[in-house]
Amino acid sequence: MELVWLVPVTGIAAVLFALWLARDVLRRDVGTPEMQEIAGMIFEGAMAFLQRQYRTIALMAVATAVAIFVIVGAVSEGVKEIVLEGGVPGFGETVVGRWQEALLTSIAFLAGALASGVAGFVGMYISVRSNSRTAAAAQHSLKEAITVSLRGGAVSGFLVVALSLLGVSGIFLVYSRLLDNPPAIAPFIIV
User: Fold this and answer.
1) With bands split at pLDDT 50, 70 and 90, how would you rate the model's confidence at 181?
2) Nearest Cα residue to 31 out of 150, 178, 136
3) Computed from CA positions of residues 64, 66, 70, 73, in that sequence, does the dihedral angle turn out positive or negative?
4) How far is CA 158 from CA 89, 92, 134, 168, in A?
5) Is residue 103 a part of any domain in this protein?
6) What would the pLDDT profile of 146-155 be if each residue is shown by its tens digit?
7) Residue 130: inside a domain, yes or no?
8) What pTM was computed for the model?
9) Number of domains the chain contains
């Protein structure tokens, strides 16, 4: 197996672990009817907040992607092949044109924004759902309450890292292998 596959495999493993943590939290006792009522109100408020916030963020992400496209297309000279001449690195011919680079960089930005949004949404969902479960677990033992709360919070942390790994490695693989660009120049297209 090539070393390049280590990153996406690690990302997939982290997503699976986050799903296991989420499942563990969501299968626990939701508490008394009073706890459930309060948790329901918190959940409703959190989802309304996320819906409004993500609508604004989506508009800003699209506007930023357009700005990236225009700026990169206007100032870039494209991505040139990296060559060694007498042991000294230099640049060869252009392998990705300026507007293609602008488009690919904008797509990479949007992929990152999407991954961040998914991690944030799922993290908020699980965190809010773990509130009443943590309170219910606290009625039994402090250890169980801490376990539920830490696992609920860890879902977000693992998803941020996992989706970052999957996003960057996925973009790298698409830009280098599927679009048939030399792997050495793929990072210059992404950024």
Assistant:
1) confident
2) 136
3) positive
4) 38, 41, 19, 15
5) yes
6) 999 999 999 9
7) yes
8) 0.82
9) 1
CA 67 to chain centre: 21
CA distance 19 to 30: 19
Which tens digit of pLDDT belongs to each residue from 3-50?
A: 778 999 999 999 999 999 999 999 999 989 999 999 999 999 999 999
Q: Is residue 19 part of a domain?
A: no
Residue 151: give the domain boundaries. 28-190
Lookup result for tokens 């990705």:
96
Rounded to an integer, what distance in angstroms lies between the CA atom of residue 149 and that of residue 161?
19
**Residue 71 falls inside a structural domain:** yes
Q: Evaluate whether 95 touches 104 at the Cβ level (below 8 Å).
A: no
Q: Describe the crossing of helices 33-75 and 98-138 by its angle, rounded to 10 degrees.
A: 170
- Supply 127's token pair: 């965190």
CA distance 175 to 189: 8
